[in-house]
Amino acid sequence: MAASAPLIMRVMASSISTAARAGGIIRDVLKKGDLGIVDKGKNDPQTEADRSAQRCIIASLNRKFPNVKIIGEEGGSDLNVCDDWLVTELDEGFLQQSCPAEWKDAKAEDFVIWVDPLDGTAEYTQGHVEHVTVLIGIALKDSAVGGIIHQPFFKQPDGELGRTIWGLKGLGTGGFTAVPAPPGQFIITTTRSHSNALHQQALNAFASTEVLKVGGAGFKVLQLLEGKAHAYVFATPGCKKWDTCAPEAVLEAQGGCLTTINGDHYAYNAEVEHVNRQGVLASLGQNHAELVEKIPAEVRAAVGAKP
């Protein structure tokens, strides 16, 4: 079945298996205790877990799909990895799904895979491991269409660690049960560490009943999917394409929306700038256009301005 499945189904199925293996690597590094932290900039650490998880993901996907463009947060990676890090199996459960007609004929040159091997690195180093996710986003030409969000430290009812959530536009989502956010409230999820005056002005424009400050774009979108928040507001140019490609695809496969704070979708082709200069606004079960209009025009103009 795997060999005859459309390319996007094979890429998704491989990414599901690979994300779970990367999660195991992330847990192993933490267990050993030496995180190997390198400071890439203000509030932007990198650990041995970031580097190793990326090597696992890119080597595994590159081996199976050598003609697909892959862009990882940690730059170029050594593709010579040990056999234990080379994931060859595809998730058979996913391959049982029917491929949406619009993606059946997608060719390798249409794809860009955006990899954030450890989203929420600052939280990982600080012990807030529940915020950590592995993100593999699959774009076709300009659009994010498929995504995997793996939580290495999610505790299953049987005590096993790790949960993998997937979404493919036109097909739907899997790996979790969506929950609507509580009615009669308006809860915002936002950054723990990248706030500024403009961002705060944007938050103040909403009549929110609660603001949840958490780490990682993947974990923030999970707040929406699990009904813990109504909107994700990030009115600064801090995150990158590998932060948002997978979360956007999963959220929109569930019927939500993730855009810039001006309401436009980001492009995810191989030539785009990696920085998301116009912030992030995401919602599920809301009128997204109305949320865009709530953000003050001066904030939307300033965040989108060229440096």
Report a brief summary of the structure.
The protein is of the alpha+beta class and 307 residues long. 32% of the residues lie in helices and 23% in strands.
Task: Looking at this protein, list some descriptive labels.
single chain, 307 residues, alpha+beta, 6-stranded mixed sheet, 5-stranded mixed sheet, 9 helices, 13 strands, 32% helix, globular
Tell me what the structure shows.
The protein contains nine helices and 13 strands. It is 32% helix and 23% strand. α1 packs antiparallel against α2 (48-64) and α6 (217-225) runs parallel beside α7. β3 (69-72), α3 (92-95) and β4 form a beta-alpha-beta unit. The radius of gyration is 18 Å and the shape is globular. The model has no long low-confidence stretch (mean pLDDT 91). The chain has helices spanning 7-32, 48-64, 92-95, 121-126, 197-204, 217-225, 241-253, 288-294, 297-304; strands at 38-39, 45-46, 69-72, 111-119, 133-140, 143-155, 161-168, 172-174, 187-191, 210-214, 231-234, 257-259, 280-283. The relative contact order is 0.14. A six-stranded mixed sheet has the order 3-4-5-6-7-8, sandwiched between helices. A five-stranded mixed sheet has the order 10-9-11-13-12, with helices on both faces. A two-stranded antiparallel ribbon has the order 1-2. With 307 residues, the protein is α+β, with helices and mostly antiparallel strands.
